[in-house]
Amino acid sequence: MDLHRYLQTALEAAFLAQGIHQYYQAKGFTQSSKSTPTDLVTQADQETEAAIRELITSRFPDHVVLGEEQGQDREGAFRWIVDPLDGTVNYAHGFPFYAVSIGLEAQGEVVLGVVLDTARGDLFTATKGGGAYLNGRPIRVSERRELLGSLLATGFSYDVHKDPENVTYFQRALAKGLMVRRPGAAALDLAYVAAGRLDGFWEVKLNPWDVAAGWRILLEAGGQVTGLEGEAYRLGQRYLVATNGLIHQELLDTLHGR
Ligand code: IPD
Ligand code: CA
Ligand code: CA
Ligand code: CA
């Protein structure tokens, strides 16, 4: 498998995305809503996905793309999992915490991840077995061992008002006096745990495109990603808990109300 060539393509796609994000951020953009009034999609989301698809399929015609805005139309051994703009609500408000997220799955395993913060320019990359990097420098998860004093993040799905399970988890964390942020871009939340900027992150109902790239980056940085019972994580499952590994059990206990 030519991981190096795939990584080069992922990087090209990420910088292409950055150009589009910045263009519309400066020029203004149209927007509409999808599943709920707060579930926004902008011209930047749509054009970015179209551009990334075109690049990937022109390079690798037999590869499949799963993207948030256009879905996936066939099966294949190589699948690119793309969130063209993670943090759309932030983007639409000019709150500079959003990214493009590009993962590559080969035979069912994510082998490469690129997350680019297109406002700030932070570039997180990883390939399976090759370590994780921020702007070309190796990164590792934090060494914090206790949950109290850790900096945590979570996020809420657009239908949280109808499915408020994570509100309960959020309350349990706050009731213990923990420090929790809601930055608003899951791919960056995962990358921040990888870089030791956060110690842990959890969310309910993330989609594969939110997670694929950041998951690989976090694993390569020495982190741990599981479901709510501590079981191995699988893309598309309801619960994701991601930490530096050292506070993992304590975070699981907290979410469970223990
Ligand atoms: C959303 C963001 C947000 C998370 C939501 C996601 P989008 O992705 O990652 O942080 O809480 O669950 O849907 O819609 O901005 O790509
Ligand atoms: Ca997303
Ligand atoms: Ca998105
Ligand atoms: Ca979205």
Automatic annotation (TrEMBL):
| EC number(s) stated in the UniProt entry for this protein | 3.1.3.25
Cofactor(s) the protein requires to work: Mg(2+)
Q: Which Gene3D superfamilies match?
A: 3.40.190.80, Fructose-1,6-Bisphosphatase, subunit A, domain 1
What is its EC class? hydrolase
Q: What are the protein's UniProt keywords?
A: Hydrolase, Magnesium, Metal-binding
Q: Which InterPro entries match?
A: IMPase, Inositol_monoP_metal-BS, Inositol_monophosphatase-like, Inositol_monophosphatase_SuhB
Question: Which positions bind Mg(2+)?
Answer: 68, 83, 85-86, 210
Entry superkingdom: Bacteria
Please list the GO biological process terms of this entry: inositol metabolic process; signal transduction
A single MF term (Gene Ontology): metal ion binding
Instruction: Mention any Pfam family matching this sequence.
Output: Inositol_P
UniProt lists the family membership as follows: Belongs to the inositol monophosphatase superfamily.
| Protein name (Swiss-Prot/TrEMBL) | Inositol-1-monophosphatase
